[in-house]
Automatic annotation (TrEMBL):
Catalysed reactions listed for this entry: a long-chain fatty aldehyde + NADP(+) + CoA = a long-chain fatty acyl-CoA + NADPH + H(+)
Catalytic EC class: oxidoreductase
Domain of life of the source: Bacteria
One of the GO BP terms on file: bioluminescence
Annotated protein name in UniProt: Acyl-CoA reductase
Keyword tags: NADP, Oxidoreductase
Source organism of the structure: Prauserella sediminis
Annotated GO MF terms: acyl-CoA dehydrogenase activity; long-chain-fatty-acyl-CoA reductase activity
Enzyme nomenclature, EC number: 1.2.1.50
Region forming the signal peptide: none
Keyword Oxidoreductase attached: yes
Length: 473
């Protein structure tokens, strides 16, 4: 859509970054006007030029001959500059993002600073080592020989990737850029409407470190409206890209799927729901109860429940009276955490109406809190049939945690578990149900460096594995 005099006021400008070059705003008639999905806030981008986003396959990836050790050093310096409070690029980025995003600026600043800390030499080295049995394959053709004496060489070749980015945190941009660099990819980042700023801000910071560095030349970040066939039919082709790395809701993933075919694959971080499982041991003593409630509230409020690891359903082993006690205490801690976060978003109308309806069904449900965004807890004997979000938790009473396992499926990402000594008894059943991660209650947010994510080792999936077979001697 081209801006005209009839368009609403444009509040923020969102430049592009194309293969090392910042593409800024043209005059108003030449800019394209878009609106953020959640808030409907207008933002303006340059007109999209598709030709500049595609590198011909005859052109070797810029990072091909750059050692991983050098890439890591560059990422570490980038992380230090992102975290620097005097970084005007990141300051401006978060201020603009706060206009289009549901989270307040204060929380966005914290998320960016936290993500920048992951650009640490030991962290990045561990990530590579956990994803690749022999990390040398990223830098060279590694010689192999099988039991018959046949000789070959194998390389994890830098892929051509389109990243369909999530918009829940500026940390997603930092993480995706780092991963794209570590696998030496040629990267095109499709920014989300809720955050058409962070990816470009990180790349601009990289360009300040070294504008000619191969990492900088291997990166592009632009925005188009998801589902725009005029763009996606042109770009989502195997002659241009190997894989699309897609984050997002079901509609976003479904949209990408239609373009898949031989030579163009999907690496999907699709919609997930995380839960908690709390045993009756939580009621052993008052201090144990208080600690368990605090851990549960921490998992619910991870990134103000915008993260996929944030718990939405707490399956609680106990009586009706114990469930009510737990739900009331959980509501109190959620309200406190919400107040500390300065997030004042009310629930959307559909969710408000569903919760208000449940509050009138006293026999089957109890509701603590208000739908004004300060926190709500619903106690029930079956999970509610809607997706709790925006500081909303559903405490589901069960006679035994065995009864909770049937609610685990392939969309269950993280399971926060208490008591800790019972986790090993359930992990096989949770994996069989489809869950991808079980952690101690209260530890949904932090993750062991280099562990699988969404049931896979992502970097291993990103690369283009190539074999050179050289017969026998």
């Amino acid at each position: 859509m081209t801006a005209t005099q009839n368009e609403p006021q444009i509040l923020v400008d969102a430049p592009f970054f194309v293969r090392g070059t910042l593409v800024g705003m043209a005059s108003a008639p030449d800019g394209d006007v878009h609106h953020s999905r959640e808030l409907g806030v207008g933002f303006r981008t340059p007109q999209l030029q598709l030709d500049g986003l595609v590198a011909p396959r005859t052109e070797l990836p810029p990072l091909l001959d750059t050692p991983v050790a050098e890439i890591i050093d560059f990422l570490v310096e980038t992380g230090q500059r992102i975290a620097d409070p005097s970084n005007a690029i990141m300051q401006e980025c978060v201020e603009r993002m706060a206009a289009t995003h549901v989270l307040p600026a204060e929380l966005l600043f914290k998320q960016a600073a936290y993500a920048a800390q992951t650009l640490d030499k030991q962290t990045l080295t561990t990530l590579v080592e956990r994803n690749f049995p022999d990390p040398r394959a990223l830098d060279e053709w590694v010689p192999q020989r099988d039991h018959t004496g046949r000789r070959s060489f194998v390389r994890a070749f830098g892929p051509r990737l389109v990243h369909v980015m999530p918009g829940n945190s500026p940390g997603a941009a930092i993480k995706s850029i780092a991963e794209g660099a570590l696998v030496k990819a040629v990267n095109l980042f499709k920014m989300p409407s809720s955050d058409p700023f962070s990816t470009v801000a990180v790349l601009r910071t990289m360009a300040e470190v070294d504008p000619g560095h191969p990492i900088v030349r291997a990166m592009s970040a632009v925005y188009w409206r998801g589902g725009d066939a005029s763009v996606e039919q042109a770009l989502y082709r195997p002659q241009y890209f190997d894989k699309v790395v897609a984050w997002g809701g079901g509609s976003a993933i479904d949209n990408v799927i239609q373009y898949l075919g031989p030579g163009f694959q999907l690496v999907s971080f699709d919609p997930k729901t995380s839960i908690s499982m709390v045993g009756r041991e939580a009621f052993a003593a008052d201090d144990v109860f208080a600690q368990t409630v605090d851990w549960a509230s921490s998992d619910v409020m991870t990134l103000n429940q915008e993260a996929c690891v944030a718990s939405r359903f707490i399956f609680l082993e106990g009586t009706d009276q114990e469930a009510d006690r737990f739900a009331a205490a959980l509501h109190g801690r959620i309200v406190e955490r919400a107040a500390d976060s300065s997030d004042r978003r009310p629930l959307d109308r559909d969710l408000r109406e569903q919760i208000e309806t449940l509050s009138m069904l006293d026999d089957d449900y109890r509701v603590w809190g208000r739908t004004d965004g300060t926190g709500v807890v619903i106690r029930s004997d079956e999970p509610v049939d809607f997706h709790p979000v925006n500081k909303t938790a559903n405490v589901v009473r069960v006679d035994s945690l065995d009864d909770a396992v049937k609610y685990v499926n392939v969309a269950t990402q993280t399971v926060g578990f208490y008591p800790f000594h019972r986790m090993a008894d359930y992990r096989d059943r949770l994996a069989s149900g489809g869950a991808q991660r079980v952690v101690r209650l209260g530890e949904a947010g932090p993750s062991t460096i280099g562990n699988p994510h969404d049931a896979m080792y992502p970097l291993h999936r990103f690369v283009h594995w190539m074999a050179h077979e050289d017969g026998t001697e």
